Amino acid sequence: MSAVADFQAVQVELKRLCEAVAHYTSTHNAVKGTERLLKRAQRDLAFTAYFAQEERVGHSVSQTSSDCVASRAAAAQLQGARNNLRGMQAELDVAQQATDVVCLGARFYSQVSAGEGASSKRKQRTHNNANILANHFVPSGESVEVDVVAQQGLAWIEVKAHEPFDTDSSQWLGNPGHFKGLEQQAKQQLRIAKAACNQLMWQAPTVLFHFPQDPKGPELQAWAQRVAHWRPYIDGKGLIAAEAAMLQFQKLLDQFGGHNERCRWQALQEKLLVFSCDPSEAGKTSNDVSAVVNSTQQAHTHNVDSFDFLQSRVAHLQAISAAQRIVFALGDDQHAVTLTANELLILQHVRVSD
């Protein structure tokens, strides 16, 4: 499927979502926040329609380096649109299934102080205003945005539409200075839900997390059967990596990795043979291209001159960057078996290169 077709497929789904949100809005007039959800869907729909037209223009000319940059940007924009679609669809699904929905996308604060002209009785009713606080009240302290407020305000439902993860990952633990993990988010929601200004009839709202991508039993069994045969291929084999890929992985690990992931990476590095290449050389496509691959481990120095494969098998992959080309070149030269890979990236390379 081409990039244009990918955008068109997302457009179709976004149109259906807009229609579904509009119908929900018309049949649930008392629910606040539905207009915001509809505007978000319409904004993404307009964006994908515009970008699909730009893609048609880009594919009508020959592939150049600037076209490659645009192609990678289009892939990133497309993935962002898919993620937004998945999140908005999940929020609507929860709203349709929940009972006594009050608001979509409501912000709650840990403290609400009465301003000038506000009565104490009205101060006790600030929870009824959900995300739209009365003008006479000043919110302060911590705040959280709740995706769906249901059961007349007694249920806060947070929708997490990302891929499944475990409690060792950064999705759960977070990364200080970059983003909060789900554990910290859940604790914060519980604290704010217990605040006096958010209680209803002396009862704190129940905090719920909904995972539409939660793996089911059959899916887990299929995954286990699919990867169980990897172990025999790994045992007794050496592990190699391009320095560019290793540095990029280290950057991602520093930003997103949890404690256990960092420990596993530390142990893995002891077995890893790293090859350094000059990305500027791998980015060239003339006949005089050459690159020297040097192991960073002195005990296993490896020099290779004049990579012929850099001409015939790697140089024509114009849809990828020079650093990515290094990874493909190294694996091809060493006849290395790749156990895992970015399937969408590889398919894109094959489609564009062919």
Kindly name the structural category: alpha/beta
Based on Cα principal axes, name the global outline.
Answer: globular
* SSE sequence, one letter per element: HHHEHEEHEEHEHHEHHEHEHHH
Largest sheet, in brief, is:
4 strands, mixed
Strand content: 5-15%
Number of discrete domains: 3
Distance between the termini: 13 Å
Query: Would you identify the regions where 5 or more consecutive residues have pLDDT less than 50?
Result: 57-66, 116-136, 281-311
Radius of gyration: 26 Å
Query: Strand sequence of the main sheet, in spatial order?
Result: 1-2-3-6
Please give the number of β-strands: 9
Q: Whole-number average pLDDT?
A: 72
* Share in helix: 40-55%
How does this structure look, described?
The protein is an alpha/beta fold and 354 residues long. The protein folds into three domains: 3-97; 103-210, no CATH class; 219-353, no CATH class. It is built from 14 helices and nine strands. The chain has a four-stranded mixed β-sheet, with helices on both faces. A hairpin with a 4-residue loop joins β2 (137-150) and β3. α1 (3-27) runs antiparallel to α2 (34-58) and α1 (3-27) runs parallel beside α3. The protein is globular, with a radius of gyration of 26 Å. The two termini are 13 Å apart. Residues 57-66, 116-136 and 281-311 have low confidence and may be disordered.
